[in-house]
Amino acid sequence: MEIASLFIWEFISDVSFMLKVFVMMTLANWVRNHLGDSPVSWILIVGIGYFVLFDGWAVFGPIYLLYLLLGFGVSSIIIDFFFVGAGGPPEQEGIESPVSSGVDIMKRMGEKAAHMNVMRRR
Fold it and tell me: Considering the entire predicted model, what is its pTM?
């Protein structure tokens, strides 16, 4: 039992380290793209790196994970779950869609052909 719990905690620690490295590389790339290869960009990279890797990971990690989840489209699932009703769309009043089915299109084509025949007879 102790070996399994040790394995799980070591695995979580490794995943956390890999996520920190990925975040550090992402932020370093973002800073270099926006500020270039100047000394200011390197100072910012070192400062952000210290904050992300050591000091502020308890605050920054969950925020970054939420950002990743929202970036991967989890927000659409959340919006669908909370804001779209399960009963279907509400009844519409007024003008409906101009094309509702293939039968509707065939009916319109028949009416148009009938009008064209009337126009030809005159």
Answer: 0.48
C-alpha angle with apex 58: 16 to 31, nearest 5 degrees?
80
Tokens of 40: 């200011």
Per-residue pLDDT tens for 31-78? 999 998 899 999 999 998 888 888 787 887 788 778 777 877 777 777
- For every residue of 31-89, DSSP letters joined together read HHHHH-SSHHHHHHHHHHHHIIIIISHHHHHHHHHHHHHHHTTHHHHHHHHHHS-TT-S
Task: Delimit the domains of the chain by residue range.
Answer: 1-72
Residue 118 has pLDDT above 90, yes or no: no
Three-class DSSP category at 113: helix
Q: Give residues with Cβ within 8 angstroms of 19, minimum separation 6.
A: 61, 64, 65
